[in-house]
Amino acid sequence: MAGNPYDTLGVSPSASAADIQKAYRKLAKKLHPDLNPGDKTAEEKFKEVSAAYNLLSDAEKRKRFDNGEIDESGAERPQHQFYRDFANSDDGHPYTSTSGFADFMDTDDALAELLRRGQRARQNRRGEDLHYRLPIDFVDSISGASKRITLPDGDTLEVKIPPGLIDGQILRLKGKGALGAGKGGPGDALIEVEVLPDRRFTRDGDDISLELPISLSEAVLGGQVRVPTPTGDVTMSVPKGSNTGTILRLKGKGAPRRGGGSGDELVKLKIVLPKSPDPELEAFVSNWTKGKEFNPRGGTPS
Predict the structure, then answer these.
(1) At residue 226, does pLDDT exceed 60?
(2) What is the DSSP string of 133-180?
(3) Equal fold, 5-123 vs 130-195
(4) CB 119 within 8 A of CB 98
């Protein structure tokens, strides 16, 4: 909330118009947002200083304030209706009006030119970039997809997911951000993509990995099995005598590479026995002499 304008400018109620102008110029050179980019504290203080100067530099307003007819914001005290000289500015900031630094505009020093440029830039400022987060499935990150984002105001944005996109990558939609002012164009929409985990696949660079369960018969005798990939199932040959941990490679079934082509899908085999006991299998193993002689941990059987 604005305080007493005399206190804000650091002058006494009996100060002359020249003293008030001098005090304002000194504070403006120190606090103006163009001279303190990103400093929110300085920006808020400058708003207060500009509002105080707008009031006290106007002889009629100053007289009415001194007589208690209006408050420090310029509002009529009886009605409590807020009215400020900068109320019609585009963004509500006092420094978007030329009145806030009119004294500087009459000089030829470097500060005056900086403020002129700053004023023109604000009158034709580009719209802000808007940030969104978009979760997508793993398979869509590999093969690409089209997604739709529903905005807070009910509008939608169509987002094209390029093949091979990685988690955390940001897509820029030109001109889909907030509207600008004057001749300033709209900002962009920045879409940060979150790739959701997949229980089947993991990614390592351009390659993807998959653990594939196979039966004991398929491991011993080999055979043709169906293998999922991000673009659909394919048929793969399992060699005879395959083991748990054996890795087979499906060429070109990984993520697309920037320079062309695609990585591979690495299929890691895992032998899985039937859940229910199988008397025939148990009988075979009991009579399997060579099986008993083989020690997969090294050394001789115990």
Answers:
(1) yes
(2) EEEE-HHHHHH-EEEEEE-TTS-EEEEEE-TT--TT-EEEETT-S---
(3) no
(4) yes
